[in-house]
What we know:
Blueprint: E1 4-6, H1 12-23, E2 31-36, H2 40-52, E3 58-66, E4 78-82, E5 87-88, E6 91-98, E7 104-109, E8 112-118, E9 124-130, E10 135-140, E11 146-149, E12 154-157, E13 165-172, H3 178-186
Antiparallel strand pairs: 1-11, 2-3, 3-13, 4-5, 4-9, 6-11, 6-13, 7-10, 7-12, 8-9
Amino acid sequence: MLFTYPFPLKSFDALRNYTLEKTKHLINDKIYTTRINPPYDIEQLINRELISYGLPKAANFLVFKRKNWIDTNPNTVHVDYSVAVDQILHASIVLPIDGCNGTSMYWMSGDHHYEKRFLADGDAYKAVVWDSAPAICNQTEILEPTLCRVDIPHDALSNVNGSYRTILSIRFKTNPTFDEILQKRFGIQC
């Protein structure tokens, strides 16, 4: 099973620069999760690109900025969820914004169930409660825009030097699966 796949984006530089500007003041806490709203021209650029691949438009843009998150921890893994559609989300495009060298995203497997937890902005995620001992089943360093499975328990690690790891997660309207996106964008059948 694939957990990630490179997803080149023409709009990457514009999204990266905008995200850096919007998050530069976030320097006090260990972790930030914040929604950003790119300017109309940048949002249209990404949406036109997604539509050209036969994919739905972007539903939202969520920034994760963290530091001192250096050990895998089964108690912090989660699956992505949307309150708006009351569904676990299947896939997102993860853009490495800053400090991603030497960091990774990881996935865990094991018997589990979920508990809904809310973010400060009113959105939510599904925290994983383990019913058996979990194990890491995949770990990937993300250094380019990458399609990621987010419906499997996952989390990310930051740099051991205490610097921030910042990524931008683009979620899709209509919640297509990872496999559907691969097939439409790259013609890959899983």
